[in-house]
Amino acid sequence: MTGRWFRTHPAAGPPRKRVLVLPHAGGTASFYHPWGQESGAGTQVLVAQYPGRQERWAEPRIERMEELADEITAALLPFLDVPVTLFGHSMGASLAYEIAVRLEDRHRVAAHSLHVSSRKAPHRLTPRAWHLAADDVLVAEVRALGGTDGALLDDPALLELVLPALRSDFTAVGTYGPREPTPVSCPVHAYVGDSDPVVTAADMAAWADVAPGGFTRRQFPGGHFYLVEHRAELLGAVDGPR
Questions:
Q1: pTM for this one?
Q2: Is the pLDDT of residue 32 over 60?
C-alpha cells in the first residue's frame, strides 16, 4: 500500500522528520518533485500519488474526499516513527486536514503541524459543481486556476488521458461540503496568494477555528498557484528550521 500511495524522496541520512505533501485537484506527485530535492537535511518528503494518474493510471479513481483520507491515513501509519508534518494545496489542504483529524481520532497520533494552502476552512467551504460541467467548461476552469501544463489541456489526445482524473478530483472537491470544524491539536499554518481568484486571506483566517494549538497566516504575491514562484520560501516555512 505504501509503495502505491507515496513517492518517497529520501532524507540525507536517517530521517528525523517527514513532510507529507497532498497535491491539488488534477495534480500529480511529479509536480512536487522539487520539494524532495530541496528539503532540509534529515527531512524525508512523501508526496501522495492519487489513483488514476501516471503510474497509477489503470487503478480506479476515488471521488470522495473521505475515502481518499481513509486510504492515505492507513498508508501513512508505517511512517509515524518520526514527527510528520502535513502540507496540502487547494484540494490537498482539505485532505491534509481530514488526515490530521483521522490520525488523532483513530490512532491517537498528532501531526507535528498542519499546513494548508489556497483552500477555505472546512466550515467555510462553498462547493461548486464543476464536476457536473461539460468538458470544455471544466477545462476552462482548470486553465484559469493555473498549475496544469497547458500542453496537456491543448492536445486532445493528452487531454483525453488526464480529463478523467481531473473530473474525479473535482468531484471529490464538489461533494465535500461545509462541515463542523473539528479542532486538531497541532499548530495550523495557512498560506494564500494575494491575487488568488477563488480564496482570500480572510477565507484562510477561518482556519484558526480548528487550531487551538496555534495558528499563523501568511500571504504571498501571486494567484492560486503562488507556490510555484515561491517554492523555496514556502518549503522553508513547511520544513521548519534547517
A1: 0.93
A2: yes
CATH of 2-127+177-239, one of 3.40.50.2300, 3.40.1000.10, 3.30.450.20, 3.40.50.1820: 3.40.50.1820
Residue among 39, 90, 117, 118 flagged as catalytic: 90
Q: What is the pLDDT of residues 180-214, one digit of tens each?
A: 999 999 999 999 999 999 999 999 999 999 999 99
Of 9, 115, 224, 230, the catalytic one is 224
The answer to whether 224 is a known catalytic residue is yes
Upper half-sphere CA count for residue 73 (Cβ side, 13 Å):
23
DSSP secondary structure letter of residue 61: P
Residue 222, by phi and psi: left (phi above 0), alpha (psi -120 to 50) or beta? left
33 included as an active-site residue: no
